[in-house]
């Protein structure tokens, strides 16, 4: 009986992993087609609500890749201090997720957060009109973020 519980626990964890992999794969495959459509309702926000370009970082405190990415984004936040708004949305647990959802909605990013909250780390680069110009998944070098942020700043 004990071994049966252990086996079913392993099967359950395996099943959860496959579900997560399928969700992430689907999001990655559909992102190029949906990125503007997903944000259509959010981009109706007025320009007064946007302070230039915005970088949105969806992460979890328990995620090792997110931990490696944080220092890069910290550096970028210092470099672009007066030009770009940096927003961090934490999805570590239910309370963090709910708090992040409220912040995302207040910034007109509700659809973006809802679509990508299970895909972390994910960084969205937005222009001043609220249009998502680039989604960057996983760990990347600093230059990739710099190029995307500079594009968002040029597209004013």
| Tally of domains | 1
CATH topology value: Glutaredoxin
Biggest pleated sheet: 4 strands, mixed
Return the CATH architecture: 3-Layer(aba) Sandwich
CATH superfamily name? Glutaredoxin
Provide the gyration radius in Å: 17 Å
| Neighbour order of strands in the largest sheet | 2-1-3-4
Q: What is the CATH C-level name?
A: Alpha Beta
Order of helices and strands: HEHEHHEEH
| Helix proportion | 55-70%
| Averaged pLDDT | 76
Low-confidence stretches: 1-15, 27-50
How many strands in all? 4
Give the helix/strand class.
alpha+beta
Task: Tally the helices.
Answer: 5
Keywords:
disordered N terminus; 156 residues; alpha+beta; four-stranded mixed beta sheet; Glutaredoxin; globular; 55% helix; 16% strand
Characterise the protein shown here.
The chain has a single domain, classed as Glutaredoxin, CATH 3.40.30.10. The longest helix is centred in the first third of the chain and has 37 residues, at 2-38. The model is unreliable at 1-15 and 27-50 (pLDDT under 50). It contains five helices and four strands, in the order H-E-H-E-H-H-E-E-H. It is 55% helix and 16% strand. The chain has a four-stranded mixed beta sheet with strand order 2-1-3-4, with helices on both faces. It is globular, with a radius of gyration of 17 Å. With 156 residues, it is an alpha+beta fold. Strand 3 (122-126) and strand 4 (132-137) form a beta hairpin.
